[in-house]
Specification:
10-stranded mixed sheet; 4-stranded antiparallel sheet; about 325 residues; Pseudouridine synthase; alpha+beta; about 20% helix; 3 domains; Structural Genomics Hypothetical 15.5 Kd Protein In mrcA-pckA Intergenic Region, Chain A; 14 strands
Length: about 325
């Protein structure tokens, strides 16, 4: 079994002045209870301005820097599971999966089954970094749980190393299809700014002016009806929730995205699909262009809204 430990650093913002530290921490650390937070404090795992905090009732003054060390948790052995996978390409070094929405990519401290990795372990005899990355073998990039579409898997260590480098140097072209709310005044554009933790809601990401990482998305409206747009997005960077954050920034959140927009009666999850990948093979250098068919729920929603999804294939991989 592997042990994981995580350190989190939070800055106390103005809206939490006068609030208890345990309330602040529970709001800003995902999937935690008040009892868990209080135990963290009691065990000396919370520092306020570099000093151990031993009072859950400590009132915050604002601008404190809080360091939290999450305790080590044992991750159970990750076992192969016969999870159906749509394998759209594979050779001895890599595979490309068209991931369904609702499938988490890899295990975490509290999730050890039902993930893409569990399925990969069942379907493939070899995966990259199987000895060192016990909960993430083969994984070189990620998709959000409720985002569908193409994800590249490294089956060998040599492929993993080169794929990671290709992602860093932007040599892998990634294009998504989204259904967004509203109609865009500018039918195409480039968004270039910083994305970091939302200062008011730390479980979300946001466009920020400081303490963020550069994020670049290029979008093109390919069809629209009243109140909805079918949008193609080519991303040059891969920040957490990047497209979802950028569409919210443009005031056109993705339909069904209840984190960056509002829940929808039409769509049960965010209508975002990783549709196209273009890159040179990490070992053979052979050019690859791979398309991932739209899932049934995306097609159903698009047809209900009378958006023309056939235009996606007609548009192909043209990102101009």
């Amino acid at each position: 079994m592997e042990k994981l430990m995580e350190k989190i650093i939070l800055n106390v913002t103005e809206e939490f002045i006068g609030k208890r530290i345990d309330v602040f921490l529970q709001k800003n650390i995902s999937d935690t209870s008040r009892a868990f937070i209080q135990k963290l404090i009691d065990d000396g795992n919370v520092l306020v301005n570099k000093k151990i905090c031993n009072k859950s009732s400590l009132k915050l003054k604002g601008n404190e820097i809080i360091e939290i060390t999450l305790p080590e948790e044992e991750v159970k052995e990750i076992l192969p599971e016969n999870i159906p996978l749509n394998i759209v390409y594979q050779d001895e070094d890599i595979a490309v999966i068209n991931k369904p929405a609702g499938l988490t990519v890899h295990p975490a401290q509290d999730i050890v089954s039902g993930t893409l990795v569990n399925g990969l372990l069942f379907h493939f005899k070899t995966l990259a970094n199987i000895e060192t990355e016990k909960i993430r073998p083969g994984i070189v990039h990620r998709l959000d749980k409720n985002t569908s579409g193409l994800i590249v898997i490294a089956k060998t260590d040599r492929a993993s190393e080169k794929l990671i480098e290709k992602f860093k140097t932007k040599d892998i072209k990634k294009t998504y299809i989204a259904i967004c709310k509203g109609n865009f005044s500018e039918k195409s554009g480039r968004i270039e700014n910083l994305i970091g933790r939302d200062p008011t809601e730390r479980k979300r990401m946001a466009v920020v002016e400081i303490n963020g990482k550069p994020a670049i998305s290029n979008y093109q409206v390919i069809d629209e009806v009243q109140d909805f747009s079918l949008v193609k997005v080519h991303i040059e960077t891969g920040r957490t929730h990047q497209i979802r954050v950028h569409m919210k920034y443009l005031n056109h959140p993705i339909l069904g995205d209840d984190t960056y927009g509002n829940p929808s009666k039409i769509a049960k999850r965010q209508m975002l699909h990783a549709y196209f990948l273009e890159f040179n093979h990490p070992i053979t250098d052979k050019p690859l262009k791979i398309f991932g068919e739209l899932p049934d729920d995306f097609v159903e929603v698009a047809k209900k809204l009378k958006l023309n999804i056939d235009i996606i294939k007609e548009n192909g991989d043209n990102n101009e």
